[in-house]
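Problem: given the chain below (139 residues), write out its structure.
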Amino acid sequence: MHSPVLAPVVTLVLWSFVMWAWLYATRIPAVVKGRVGLDPTHSKAEFDALLPPQVRWKADNYNHLMEQPTLFYAVALTLALLGAGDGVNLALAWAYVGLRIAHSLVQALVNIILLRFTIFMVASVVLLVMALRAAVLVF
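Solution.
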């Protein structure tokens, strides 16, 4: 079975790997340049304090992509299994993915918190609508 909603799912997974590569492409040189020790007794906060903010932003965003998008994957796969992964649901899925990519770019490049929060909230509403549409089909 192939459902169109699987395309945005795979796109967001691949985008997560883009952010993963970007975080290491900036973090490793920063660690080397700053001679940041990799002491396992130091907390994450202590390690992060030694890195420039622009480097931390990429890692923070990668972590964000491991949080709420997991709900997106569950809802999108539910819609696919129900045969409802097209039409409005597909448009909502692409909107969510586009918003998450925009959120990543804002956080990784300029980190304007109000803009980032606005994008996150709009994406959350899109995801909520998707979840409600799936709930109507399931229940």
